[in-house]
């Protein structure tokens, strides 16, 4: 939208302004707005060449820096130069791992880079653990999310996938476990083994802090059927976290319930079963032949342990070669 009279008290800008609609084309890196469209946008304005170049550069910056909103009101043109007097903008936080360096500003005097700081979710400051996971998430194309709901809760989750995290959380609440639900989050998008290890280690560190509860705690490691996440790789990181916190897990009487499917899930579940034997901790392991949330009722002590069928009723049990992991 463009209007040659900027500032305040100018009436209904949306009604007065000229506008051009630019379709979103994710596969197009070229300019999606033509000079003719810009000329029609500018109307009777003088010095169109200067403003046209400014709008083209502004549009490219908007795309490359992942803005979701940008308004300049007003800018002035004097002696062939444009001066921005006021600007309001929004950035897409999920592009942080792509644009963090571009977004940072550097003080010419102090030569100190300052990164963009996004407001904390839910209107509160992040805990140190949440901030740590958020920083990890910003540096990778995978998705690592963690929100602490109740540090003293008995029921903890480590769920792969945003959709699955909602389903597991809803199931815990539906079965009456809302008051004991300790966290909400997800790890997905094919995180590396080391990233999964750090994510799992962070959850276990909070879960095993303080004095042990007489009734112990439960950890639900769930997920649907992964599409491209290497289950064996991520479960390798989770098993490493178990080994790191083995003494604490036993002290806090932690019982672990696992249900997962997807590429290399057989190897991933085997590693978890081996860890249960080696570390001598109660880990109940299920694959895609078991309903996704069947382990929740068992973990809460409200339903019997799921029965594993003698023959797996799944398809797509394939392996990823090491070169593609």
Task: Summarize the entry for a quick read.
The protein has 325 residues and is of the alpha/beta class.
Could you characterize the architecture of this molecule?
With 325 residues, the chain is an alpha/beta fold. The protein has 2 domains: 13-103, D-amino Acid Aminotransferase, Chain A, domain 1; 128-300, Rossmann fold, CATH 3.40.50.261. It is 36% helix and 18% strand. It is built from 11 helices and 12 strands. A 4-stranded parallel β-sheet has the order 8-10-11-12, sandwiched between helices. Strands 1-4 form a two-stranded antiparallel sheet. A two-stranded antiparallel ribbon has the order 2-3. Helix 2 crosses helix 3 (48-64) and helix 7 (193-207) runs parallel beside helix 8 (231-244). The protein starts with 12 loop residues before the first helix and ends in a 26-residue tail after the last helix. It is an enzyme of class 2 (transferase). Keywords: ATP-binding, Cytoplasm, Lipid biosynthesis, Lipid metabolism, Nucleotide-binding, Phosphoprotein, Transferase. Residues 124-301 form the ATP-citrate synthase citrate-binding domain. In the N-terminal section; belongs to the succinate/malate CoA ligase beta subunit family. In the C-terminal section; belongs to the succinate/malate CoA ligase alpha subunit family.
